[in-house]
Amino acid sequence: MTILVDPKKYSLQTIRYAAYALSGDNHVLLASQKGRIAVSFSGKAGGVPAGLKKLFLRELEDEKFRERLFAENSELHYWMIKRAINYVPAESKPKEEFGLTPEQEKELEQLIAQVESEIKLGKDDPKGITKTWEQKYGKKARR
Amino acid sequence: MARKPAVKKAETPEFRFRRLDGGFLVTNDFGGHAFLSNSDFSRYSAGRLAPGGKVYDALAAGGFVKDRLNFDNLSGNWRARNESVFHGTGLHIFVLTLRCNHKCAYCQSSVAGEKAKNLDMSLPVAKKSVDLAFQSPRNAITIEFQGGEPLANWDVLRGTIKYARLREKKTGKKLTLALVSNFSLMDEAKASFLLENEVSICTSLDGPEALHNANRTYAGGNSHKQTAKWLKYFNARHDSQYGLKYRIFKPSALLTVSRRSLGRGKEVVDEYIGRGLEEIFLRPLAPIGYAKKHWDSIGYTPEEFLKFYKEALRYILLKNKAGVKIREKFAVMLLSKILKSRDSGYLDMRCPCGASVGQLAYNYNGDVYTCDEARMVGWGGDDIFKAGTVNDKYEDIISSPVTKTVCASSNLESQPLCHRCAYKPYCGVCPVVNYEAQRSIWGQMPANYRCRLLTGLFDFLFGLLKDAKSRAILESWVDAGASR
Amino acid sequence: MKKEFKVDPGLYSEEALGLAANVASCARVAVKKSPRGLAVEIEAEEPDAAFRDFMNEALNQQCRIDLVKKNFKTSQLILANALVSALGQKNSREG
Asked: Which of A11, A12, A14, A20 to mutate to test the interface with C (most CBs of C within 10 A)?
């Protein structure tokens, strides 16, 4: 059986794929014929399977749709695959560190200790900030 | 007057479709699948499916609606379903000997007789094989001892197990050891040694006695009796292992479906249940090696296998409904990907296939092949799939032209029929079967035996998923996980 | 027995025919190129039957060539990832 396909309606790739999809049970041959592409089928088991033409025409439409789908989505699809390959699930990501490193903690402790010792000696309070209001103004308030 | 903005219809990202059971099955590479009626498919594929409603919501959840894509979820699904591809070679098959005391009708291992000479792996070669296996970057590896009959080379088997466990301690890798044996040379001392070293045991059980023995001729006696005896022994040891310092795994059995098995699925299933086995692997015969030469007498068409499989699986589901614990392993492995986006680790069904990057086969003489089936082709005189030897470094084997070529040929993104197939997210091709059956590692999928068989299998499984009761049972199998 | 068959070069590339010639099982196949176009010479017991099988393989190879051209990036991404991961690099996240 030979089916003539208009190459203006279906791309060559679409025609090839549609024919290829049916090449399991059939021998398939493509040839040019008066500006059309002739797709010839012959059943491997002899004869031509019933309903083959309908099947092939349906495959053409399916392949045309697949071709459009691929063209519209190939970049997105590639990006999604690439993303999936590089994907790290949330539980595998290193947890954010809150608080100080051991070195920073040590430094802070030293600083606190220094300030406390200076406070005790009265050295670090030239403006009397650490004194309470009563300590500062208590005698004057009692006038 | 302001115009109401047009309702945004569902735009379609890339997806695949197949006509199935009067409607359409749609799938995508990111784990989604859905069944659509003809009219819903027509609207959806034309981008005219309006938001709201069960169909739209189901498609959106499955990654089928372009502006509702949850990239994190979809990436996670893809990653989980292809997880095994991201690690080094996990399975290392050691062919300890080609000698065997059985003459199985379908033997794909291409074995020689028990008294044949110079067909045993030596201990130095075995140790080098262990060293090579441990070079895999994978933290957990499996060494599986096969043959011929590996017990026929007992001294080397014992020495290799000891050496491998030592390497395990030194490297900190996790090592699983497995033995595939016909049990005819098993005795108490050997069994105890194997169990104490945590070797998991697997055998072949083709069905009830007459069927098993017809397939698996054993000149030294009754193959089925030996298999049954030692299955009982290992099951009992497994069931009574409380308090031991080592772990005993439940024994497992494999079935190779041959022409003799056809029409006898129920008997085979009953045999497995009767032997206390909870899992059966209805494994089709591949037209390679010895089996290829004798295909006319032992082989079958894909349609014949599918008839057998459907009958057996329906019977297994019936047994499950009656409370019997038995699962079919092939279904579990395929449905793990379909239902849970989980990689079952089945090296034949992934992209690219497990050739070298998933498994390596170490022949008795130190030759290393891309997989065990490839080794069988090598035994037939064609070394096309030989990736190196045990004297090579692991990186050299992975980087070899053989590995790269075989991986490339099993890449579904480059296979014309697979690329458009609705089952692509769950499937894989076997370059060895392609080469043996169709003279090309790429194969010709429309006429490919394996492709036809798997397509039929997927059609059947997806059909079962539409039945709520069957689906519930199949889901419970997947949740329980594969035992091996 | 030898027989020559013409093949439309606009529909099957020389590359596809060459690849198919390597796969041919029951025949010796030679691909011939001339100003008039492409031809294949088949030497087999039944050249017509062998030619039909050959052309199915040629279509198979042609479709593969077509696909590789349009899907090269994605296919290479997956292949490279598999090979690089097997060497223990990149995105291994073993539990």
From this structure: A20
Q: Tell me how crowded residue B61 is: count the other CB atoms within 10 A of its CB.
A: 14
Check: CB of residue B418 under 8 Å from CB of residue B445: yes
Topology of domain B88-397 in CATH is TIM Barrel (3.20.20)
Identify the closest residue of chain B to C79 by CA–CA distance: B408
Q: What is the ipTM of this complex?
A: 0.91
Residue B198 Cα distances to B156, B161, B187, angstroms: 17, 10, 17
> Residue B141 pairs with which residues in a beta bridge?
B175
The domains of chain B are located at 16-81, 88-397
Distance CA B379, CA B387 (A): 14
Amino acid letter at C23?
A: V
DSSP code, position B53: S
Cα separation, B386 vs B23, in Å, equals 45
Structure confidence by residue, pLDDT tens digits, A96-127: 555 566 666 667 777 777 776 766 655 556 66
Q: What's the pTM value of the predicted model, to 2 decimals?
A: 0.88
**A82, C71: Cβ pair inside 8 Å?**
no
> What token pair was written down for B15?
């997806």
- Contact partners of A by the rule of 3+ C-beta pairs under 8 A? B, C
Domains of chain C (ranges plus CATH)? 2-86 (3.30.310)
> What length is written for chain C?
95
Window 6-35 of A: residues touching B by CB (8 A cutoff) are: 17, 20-25
pLDDT in tens, A50-81: 899 999 999 999 999 999 999 999 999 999 99
**Nearest chain C CA: its distance from B190 CA (Å):** 33
Decide if C94 and B140 are in contact by the 8 Å CB cutoff.
yes
Smallest CA–CA distance from A63 into chain B, residue: B420
CB contact at 8 A, B195 and B230: no
- Tell me which chain C residues have a C-beta less than 8 angstroms from the C-beta of A70: 70
The larger pLDDT score, comparing residue A135 to residue A43, is at: A43
**C53 is written with which tokens?**
């099988």
Q: Are B86 and C74 in contact (CB < 8 Å)? A: no
B372-379 and B431-438 are packed helices; what angle lies between their axes, rounded to 10 degrees?
Answer: 30
Q: Which of A37, A82, A92 sits opposite C11 (nearest CB)?
A: A37
CA distance A57 to chain C (A): 18
